[in-house]
């Protein structure tokens, strides 16, 4: 049993280096319109292709976490699944916040025309934007408190 725990600890330590941190990925939720900048390698050339669409689902966790993005091209629905922690994923940008009450928006596959559109979050969930700013302020305050505590501990250790 202890060997199994040791293996799991080794796997987690190896995978932890490969995960993208919070700075690399924006705070995004299902229903948002996002731009996914994805590196494409063609022979010896490398370029970045932008895929803009509605973020309809998030699956798995850890290194295996994926997002599904859907867009309409020539009246045909196109969905792509992107691994979030892939080195080929250059950047993710949130273009527009959508008001969604579900975790998965698979029902959009059956919709056509105006019924396909999601409400803008400004109309519905205003508290999310205020939560984002409050969260950012809390994180910076916590980091400053940790730095202050570390400097106090270092100065008290010198005495």
Characterize the structure shown.
The chain has helices spanning 2-16, 127-158; strands spanning 33-42, 45-59, 66-73, 76-83, 89-96. It is of the alpha+beta class and 159 residues long. The protein has two domains: 2-119, SH3 type barrels; 123-153. The chain has a five-stranded antiparallel beta sheet, with no helix packed on it. Strand 3 (66-73) and strand 4 form a beta hairpin. The mean pLDDT is 85.
List key phrases describing it.
alpha+beta; 2 domains; five-stranded antiparallel β-sheet; SH3 type barrels; single chain; 159 residues
**Helical amount:** 25-40%
Radius of gyration: 21 Å
Shape: extended
Q: What is the β-strand count?
A: 5
Unreliable stretches covering 5 or more consecutive residues: none
Mean pLDDT: 85
CATH domain topology of the largest domain: SH3 type barrels
Strand line-up across the major sheet: 4-3-2-1-5
């Amino acid at each position: 049993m202890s060997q199994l725990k040791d293996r799991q600890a080794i796997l987690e330590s190896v995978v932890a280096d490969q995960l993208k941190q919070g700075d690399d990925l924006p705070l995004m939720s299902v229903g948002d319109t996002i731009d996914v900048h994805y590196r494409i390698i063609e022979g010896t050339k490398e370029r970045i292709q932008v895929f803009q669409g509605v973020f309809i689902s998030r699956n798995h966790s850890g290194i295996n976490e994926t997002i599904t993005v859907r867009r309409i091209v020539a009246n045909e629905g196109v969905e792509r699944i992107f691994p979030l922690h892939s080195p080929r994923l250059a950047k993710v940008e949130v273009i527009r916040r959508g008001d969604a009450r579900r975790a998965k928006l698979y029902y959009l596959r059956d919709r056509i025309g105006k019924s396909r559109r999601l409400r803008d979050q400004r109309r519905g969930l205003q508290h999310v934007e205020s939560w984002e700013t409050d969260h950012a302020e809390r994180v910076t305050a916590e980091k400053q408190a940790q730095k202050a505590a570390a400097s106090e501990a270092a100065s008290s250790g010198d005495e």
